[in-house]
Each structure stands twice: as C-alpha cells, then as structure tokens.
Amino acid sequence: MADIQAFATQFTQEYYSTFDGNRADLAKFYRPASMLTFESDQVLGVENIVAKLVGLPFQTVKHAVSTCDVQPNNNNGALILVTGQLITDGESNPLNFTQVFQIFSDGTGPFVFNDLFKLVY
Amino acid sequence: MADIQAFATQFTQEYYSTFDGNRADLAKFYRPASMLTFESDQVLGVENIVAKLVGLPFQTVKHAVSTCDVQPNNNNGALILVTGQLITDGESNPLNFTQVFQIFSDGTGPFVFNDLFKLVY
User: Do A102 and B73 touch (CB under 8 A)?
Assistant: First the structure.
C-alpha cells in the first residue's frame, strides 16, 4: 500500500456506497475468518456478517463519512477509524457513528478481518 | 488471552486512569514502533507519543468509558474500540470521543501498537 490514506479513503467510499446501495453485496469485503461487532453483537464469517447487516431493521440508510484516519498494521494492511453520521428510512435526525476496519490482504486482495461498529450518543 | 473482554476492560480502565492521573506515565503502554493518531495528527514512537499527550492544552482531564468492544487480532492480541466522554479543566460540557487500540504482545507483555483517537461532534 503505497498511499495508505488514499487506500483508506477509497475503501470507505466503496464500503458505504455498497452498504447504502445493496447490503447483500457487502459479502465481497469479508472472508471466512472475518469478525463483525455491530452494536456489541458479535458475528463471525462472511455469511453470518452479511445476514446480520441485511437483517438490520431499516429499509434505506445513508452514511456520510466525517473523518477517516488510518495507520499501517503488521500485515501489509491498514487499520482505519471512521467517524460519521447516518440516516435511516425517513428519519430527520442523523445518528453519529464510529467504525473501525482492520484490513488484511490475501491472494484475492484486501479484505476486512476486524470490523467494529458503534453508534455514538 | 483467555478472556479477551476482561483484558480489554482492565486495559482501558488502567489506560484512562493513568491518562487522567499523570500523562507522563502513559509511556509504559507504548513501544518504539507504536503509532498514535490524535485528532488526525500522527506521531511515532513512545517518546513522541508521550510528548504529544503531555503537551495537550489542558491541565486536568477525566475520561468516562461508555462502551468497550473487543475482537482478537492475528497477533495473540486485541483490537479494542472505545466510546466515551471526557471533560477537561473546568468545562461543564463533556465531549464525546472514540478511540481504537491495537494491542500486541512482546516479551514484556501487552503494549499498544496502533492508537487512533477522535472527538465526535
């Protein structure tokens, strides 16, 4: 990763664009060993992660990234901390959220190994 | 780490207790390869990290942890996502923050390899 900040910016744009467009397509970001902690619920593996995200109780969502900080990890990858706001369905008030992605690489390219999401009240 | 959630809870308690007590003592949590991104400012190494934290423009600070989620990483360590609130000096309004710690282990025990901190507005 020559330019890790550019990678992180591009990754988060693609991730949230996919999330807001068609959640089932988020499968491409995960692998069998991937972990998701979503509002303190823990799930493991691509099928379980996608099932969790697809099953969230809203029809539409729009994420807006406020900040995207990144550091290299020890695996030729990246640790990304996002803060932002999201709006679901017809709500008028956005919610603050924070999310961390740990990106590793395998033969097929970068993927999410660790994913932790929290709303911030 | 037999009980990673207990480790994460204990670590964050000790970290913020040290931060709020005597910031110079935070050196014990870092190593020469440690990275800190504090409000998007990046510093590397224990001396630079401690200098950054000690030099923050407040005299007193009190952190209160709201949530502490954790996952194992690939290095017999832990990836911890904290959300909470902090109050500096005589301010009356707490600020929301989020912080991620990537914990690795070496011969001397666990230490912080990645540290990213962001205020959430």
Answer: yes
